[in-house]
Write a structure and sequence with these properties.
This protein is α/β, with parallel strands linked by helices and 393 residues long. The protein folds into two domains: 121 residues, Aspartate Aminotransferase, domain 1; 241 residues, Type I PLP-dependent aspartate aminotransferase-like (Major domain) (Aspartate Aminotransferase, domain 2, 3-Layer(aba) Sandwich), CATH 3.40.640.10. The radius of gyration is 21 Å and the shape is globular. The mean pLDDT is 97.
């Protein structure tokens, strides 16, 4: 039977019908341990009772009114995000791409409103991923993703990720902002030297440009800190969030200082569904859980356990895995064996992982994963690695 769904995804031959915690069940009744979490979206796992309750309660009262009117949930979630972060104001959207589009517009408006319309370009980095809109594709600059979608949206320059000298050379009198992921996710779980991000902050301050962190994947507890930049003490002017913020419901946020957002006045940006009542009810419940220090400490502790297990796996099976990357529960294994084969074999064995660039498979379990589930995942990885043939000499 021919599908009526546009064929823009290379989907795995499996469909899920239910889930609970870190488990998914497919149409055949088979259970899987989910270490992909919907690409770092289901941070509190599947069917978390507090999220289900928040969504159900709001759904029974009111779904949508539009941003023509006050939305109490937005005020609540924005105030919470501001209190938990460096930010003063928040714009709500539905996806990471929307949050990054807001950041891009905000950066240009910041300078234009201050009489500097010539400052409109944004410095970004090779290997990044900021979304699938035309502007966010241009921001990432990945030739594969840009192919056949030209002409490329102008206004973006690219430096090698981690190369501070090259970044400084590319910042000029027409630069408005620097956009960077504190940890690259889609790019292959690449963790930069802390001095790189510290240097970008100093560069932005010295030259009067905004520093914008894309924490769509690495933020909201994934690293064992609420925000990834907290690990190194570098504070941005703007931050994009999504994924875990909605626990599976489409929610995104662009968080900014009042100064950075000074140009964003009524009519300068909008989203029909952004910050709707359902989304805000769930986001508030998510933040109530993941912002707790004890919860974040547990993520860090479990991340250390998983990382140690992966290091041992790499040491025993060099023919399958070359190295381990990442921090917290944002970890990756660079494959020596064919990446697609590794992902498929793990899925067949009941473990779901996510591919990334640079031959990396990502392990992004729900932040609620327990130690027994980590042990189970490591056993599956061990079994699959043992069964994979060594390369021919």
């Amino acid at each position: 039977m021919t599908s009526a769904v546009m064929p823009t995804y290379a989907r795995a031959p499996v469909a899920f019908v239910s889930g609970e915690g870190c488990r998914l069940v497919d149409t055949e009744g088979r259970r899987y341990l989910d270490f992909g979490a919907g690409i770092a979206v289901c941070g509190l796992g599947h069917a978390h009772p507090k999220l289900v309750a928040a969504l159900t309660e709001q759904a029974g009262r009111l779904w949508h009114t539009s941003n023509l009117y006050q939305i109490e949930g937005q005020e609540k979630v924005a105030a919470k995000l501001a209190a938990l972060s460096f930010g003063d104001v928040v714009f709500f959207g539905n996806s990471g791409a929307e949050a990054n589009e807001c950041a891009i517009k905000l950066a240009r408006k910041y300078h234009s409103s201050a009489g500097r319309p010539e400052r409109w370009r944004i410095l970004a980095f090779e290997g990044s991923f900021h979304g699938r809109t035309l502007a966010t594709l241009a921001a990432a600059g990945n030739p594969k993703n840009l192919e056949d979608f030209g002409p490329v949206v102008p206004g973006f320059d690219h430096a090698p990720y981690g190369d501070l000298d090259r970044a400084e050379a590319l910042v000029g009198p027409d630069t408005a902002a620097i956009l960077v992921e504190p940890i690259q996710g889609e790019g292959g779980i690449r963790v930069p030297d802390p001095e790189f991000l510290k240097g970008l902050r100093a560069l932005a301050d010295r030259l009067g440009v905004l520093l914008m962190f894309d924490e769509v994947q690495c933020g909201l507890g994934r690293t064992g800190r609420l925000f990834a930049h907290e690990r190194i003490g570098v504070v941005p002017d703007v931050m994009s969030l999504a994924k875990t913020l909605g626990g599976g419901l489409p929610v995104a946020a662009c968080v900014a200082t009042s100064k950075a957002a000074s140009g964003m006045t009524a009519g300068s940006h909008a989203s029909t569904f952004g910050g709707n009542l359902l989304a805000m009810a769930v986001a508030a419940a998510v933040l109530d859980i993941i912002a707790e220090p004890a919860f974040l400490a547990s993520v860090a502790r479990k991340g250390e356990k998983l990382a140690a297990g992966l290091d041992g796996l790499v040491a025993r099976h060099r023919h399958v895995f070359e190295s381990r990357r990442g921090v917290g529960l944002m970890l990756g294994l660079r494959c020596a064996a064919p990446q697609a084969e590794v992902v498929e074999r793990l899925r067949s064995a009941g473990l779901l992982v996510v591919p990334a660039q640079d031959q990396v498979v990502r392990l992004l379990p729900p932040l609620i994963v327990d130690e027994q589930e980590i042990d189970e995942a490591l056993l599956i990885l061990e079994s699959v690695a043992r069964a994979m043939p060594a390369k021919a000499a």
